[in-house]
Write a structure and sequence with these properties.
Blueprint: H1 2-17, H2 23-43, H3 48-70, E1 86-92, E2 97-99, E3 102-109, H4 112-115, E4 120-127, E5 138-143, H5 159-165, E6 170-175, E7 180-184, H6 193-212, H7 217-226, H8 234-242, H9 253-272, H10 276-283, H11 288-306, H12 311-329, H13 335-349, H14 357-376, H15 378-382, H16 389-419, E8 421-422, H17 426-455, H18 463-481, E9 488-489, H19 495-510, H20 515-534, E10 544-549, E11 558-561, E12 567-570, H21 581-592, E13 598-602, H22 608-611, H23 614-620, E14 623-628, H24 636-647, E15 652-654, E16 660-662, E17 667-673, H25 682-686, H26 691-696, E18 700-705, E19 708-712, H27 718-723, E20 734-736, H28 748-754, E21 758-761, H29 774-782, E22 787-789, H30 790-793, E23 796-801, E24 808-811, H31 825-842
Length: about 850
């Protein structure tokens, strides 16, 4: 009953999070739940006490969310146009997140605990740090605070909401060795000295590992031993994802379970080796099993704290502690009760963890294992009277394969929803990877870390052995990742489809045992999986087209979906040290649209903010044609792009004015720039000193579809605008504002000659160039042209038809749920249902 009550409490938290948007519907849902509980009680199948407890658990979840989350909800209070720089003092309240050449610090400013002032949580990125900092330290720095921001695209990851769930109200970046000053060590404050010491130990192990182990083995070692993922190579992480072994990179149940088993067995065996007289005297008061369970608590808690006490680690720790308590009390170990208790404790501490990816995947995986063990009774199968080693091995292998299949099936909707792929190889690879990681790499790595803490030194003990073992592991992983169709991407499923899947799965587990019922449920599950795996494009009808201006921060990326099904990608956004717009934004958007191949990639000009993300896209999507301007640059991002292009066997077609790509009837893409007569100083361009020439050489494309015309001017400046004329017979309906709204790319006469119905500017918030210029914004406003911005509106898409005279413009922000207004609750809720319906329809 206890797991059921916790599940209802979790459901109440989820329902509570939607109360501000659907108050009438939630009230109706609660009324129906109350009526249902009464009817079930009157049938005699459910006791009145049980029905009441379930309903109260649901109500408690709703009330707890409203009290702990909605009550404290408030804006960031950060004005982006406010003071440029201010001096701030605060305490580091979470383990420092290290990465090469940077620290990421979570700082509570204002020292609310001592001064009584309002606290503010700030995410500080310190580039080129001079000294090590640790949790609990009080620091001082000068910086301009910004409201958290990130790309906002249809179906994409919302980084701002992610930070909001963590309570982060402001972000900032500081650079240089003296940018952050240490005011007071956390070791001097009794409230922080323990966490400060754990962070120091982490730093000592990390430093010795950096001195001893090279990349990419270093990233894996720090990830599986300390939980540090800042040193992990993104491409290596992709290999773990493809092979279904990415869960090994986090400190979870396998790591803590291993520590608990080793500590318990070692403690118990050591006690059993005591002299018989001592052991007999000990047994009169306490059994060796109880002593071993008690002693095991200390190394398990120590390792969980050393690993940073992240969500998955805490969940595993709580489950291990519950199991040890059961051993102490002599009770039967019930995994569902342990799991429910762990979930309840975590959610009472932080209700918003219910929306954390790690929470959902980890608890769902363990629940699947528990349900599978209960159904298949693996213990009986393995401990059968047949003592043949060969047959026992086959039974174990079959059991592990079955369990792996169950976990893969149960987590498939969530993995597809968050990562747009199915890691089907994990069914096989985990049979080898989990034992190797759990019984070889992790024990040796932990032993080396503990040895380093005891004896100190700059070198990590057994560092050469660890590096060699991890390199062999990586080689095997890379070999498996090359299996054909291993990287299987798909569109993320809709919420109703996921609810149907899990509802059917629960009915299959708990429902009637009749064959017809089970076969029907299994068929429903199979249809869901096949539909998601296929992820077809349903919008191709020969008439409709769609143009999407993606929010890729300070950069450009536009996707054209034509009536005949062909796809054109104009630019791919930028790439940063730890984030690639191609990987994080453009790729997931294409998969969510059911697009697995691109017919034309147009690299308007070789600048980082336009083509930085194309290298990753070329490596992961089949591309039919590649168009560019034929200019090479001696830059790292360009070399990556060329390497990816050559790997695909693509020949760069140099675009010139007058060329046309024809699609469906009455639908074509015409190149308006550059003309053949433009000459450039190639040497200056290669050295990156002539950005203006590169901008004026940019490919300008004009899409004409039926009676609609959309112009994509890239980064052309006034010189190129002066020589471009658009035929008056083709008035521009939608204009992408040249060069992110820079003043150097604005000509009032050029805009007036076209007078577009809509203008879209692709720009990043807080960009260092001041785009879009205030004068440009004022000019568009004075001309009466509506201006849409990706930094405020998120991704913007335009839909139309070859045979219809009007276009529809949509923004990601307008499709987000809005809190209901007291003056018009029903109208506000109805609008939210419409928004939700549009989101679900896009993910069918």
């Amino acid at each position: 009953m206890f797991p059921c009550l916790v599940a209802c409490f979790i459901a109440g938290l989820v329902v509570g999070s939607y109360v501000p948007y659907f108050p009438i519907s939630v009230s109706g849902l609660l009324f129906l739940a109350a009526i249902g509980s009464v009817l079930l009680e009157r049938t005699g199948k459910v006791a009145c006490r049980s029905a009441t407890a379930v309903l109260l658990s649901l109500l408690l979840g709703i009330a707890y969310w409203s009290w702990s989350v909605e009550r404290t909800g408030h804006g960031t209070g950060i004005d982006d146009e406010g003071p440029a720089v201010q001096e701030l003092t605060g305490r580091i309240i979470e383990p420092v997140q290290p990465a090469p050449d940077r620290f990421v610090l979570t700082v509570r400013s204002g020292e609310a605990e001592s001064e009584g002032s309002a606290a503010r949580l700030i995410r500080v990125t310190w580039r080129l740090p001079e000294r090590a900092l640790f949790q609990g330290d009080v620091i001082r720095f000068q910086a301009k605070l910004r409201a958290p921001n990130g790309s906002l695209n249809p179906g994409g990851f919302d980084y701002v909401a992610y930070l909001a769930r963590q309570g982060v109200e402001a972000v900032t970046t500081v650079s240089g060795p003296d940018a952050v000053q240490l005011v007071e060590s956390g070791g001097r404050d009794w409230r922080w000295m323990v966490w400060n010491q754990f962070d120091r130990w982490r730093g000592s192990i990390r430093l010795s590992a950096i001195q001893t182990i090279g990349q990419p083995a270093l990233g894996i070692y720090l990830g599986v031993v300390l939980g540090d993922r800042g040193y992990l190579d993104p491409e290596l992480r992709d290999a773990f994802m493809v092979t279904g072994t990415v869960h090994l990179l986090s400190i979870s149940g396998s790591h803590l379970g291993l520590v608990a088993i080793l500590a318990f067995v070692a403690a118990r065996q050591s006690l059993l080796q005591l002299p018989a007289r001592w052991l007999l005297r000990l047994s009169r008061t306490i059994t060796p099993t109880r002593v071993a369970a008690l002693l095991t608590v200390f190394p398990v808690v120590f390792y969980a704290c050393l690993a940073g006490a992240e969500l998955a680690t805490v969940r595993s720790l709580l489950m291990v502690l519950v199991a040890l308590l059961a051993r102490w009390l002599g009770y039967e170990q019930r995994i569902f009760h342990a799991l429910a208790l762990a979930a309840g404790v975590i959610l009472l501490h932080d209700p918003q963890a219910v929306y954390d990816i790690s929470f959902q995947l980890s608890f769902l995986s363990v629940s699947a294992i528990a349900a599978w063990l209960e159904l298949s009774r693996v213990e009986d199968a393995v401990s059968s009277v047949d003592r043949s080693v060969f047959r026992s091995t086959l039974k174990w292998t079959a059991a592990m394969v079955s369990m792996s299949w169950v976990i893969t099936l149960v987590t498939l909707p969530l993995v597809a929803f968050y990562f747009n792929q199915v890691s089907w190889l994990g069914v096989i690879t985990n049979l080898v990877a989990v034992p190797v990681m759990g019984f070889v790499l992790v024990p040796i790595g932990l032993f080396a870390a503990v040895w380093q803490l005891i004896h100190g030194g700059l070198a990590l003990p057994l560092g050469n052995l660890i590096q060699r073992l991890i390199e062999v592991f990586i080689q095997g992983l890379d070999l498996v990742a090359r299996v054909p169709k291993a990287e299987w991407h798909l569109a993320s499923p809709s919420i109703p489809a996921m609810l149907l899947f899990y509802g059917t799965l629960i009915l299959l587990w708990l429902g009637p045992s009749r064959h017809i019922f089970r076969w029907s449920a299994a068929a429903c599950l199979g249809c869901c999986v096949l539909w998601w795996s296929w992820s077809p494009r349903l919008s191709i009808d020969g008439e409709r087209f769609r143009v999407t201006f993606l929010d890729v921060a300070q950069g450009d990326s536009t996707v054209l979906e034509l009536p005949d099904g062909q796809v054109v990608l104009i630019d791919g956004g930028t790439t940063y040290e730890r984030f690639d717009m191609g990987r994080g934004v453009v790729g997931p958007f294409l998969w969510n649209r059911g697009i697995n191949a691109v017919d034309y990639v147009i690299a308007t000009h070789p600048q980082l903010d336009h083509v930085g993300g194309l290298a990753w896209l070329l490596n992961h999507f089949p591309v039919g044609n590649y168009w560019g301007i034929g200019i090479a640059r001696d830059e790292t991002f360009y070399h990556r792009l060329e390497k990816a292009r050559l790997r695909r066997g693509l020949i760069e077609h140099v675009a010139h004015r007058g060329e046309t790509i024809r699609f469906a009837p009455d639908c074509e893409l015409t190149i308006e720039n550059p003309p053949d007569s433009v000459s450039l100083s190639d040497g200056a361009v290669r050295n990156g000193k002539n950005g203006r020439d590169l901008n004026n050489r940019s490919i300008v494309a004009r899409l004409t579809c039926g009676g609609h015309t959309i112009l994509f001017p890239a980064d052309v400046e006034q010189e190129a605008l002066a020589r471009m004329t658009i035929p008056s017979a083709d008035p521009i309906e939608v204009l992408k504002v040249p060069h992110h709204g820079a003043a150097s790319s604005f000509r009032a006469d050029w805009i007036t000659s076209m007078h577009p119905s809509h203008a879209v500017v692709s720009v990043g918030r807080h960009n260092p160039y001041g785009h879009p210029a205030r004068s440009v914004l004022d000019s568009y406003e004075s001309l009466g042209i509506p201006l849409w911005r990706t930094d405020r509106d998120g991704g913007i898409w335009i839909t139309g038809s070859r045979r219809q005279s009007s276009l529809e413009l949509h923004t990601t922000r307008s499709h987000r749920l809005q809190p209901t207004r007291r003056s018009s609750v029903w109208d506000s809720e109805k609008a939210n249902w419409e928004r939700l319906g549009r989101q679900w329809l896009q993910r069918l």
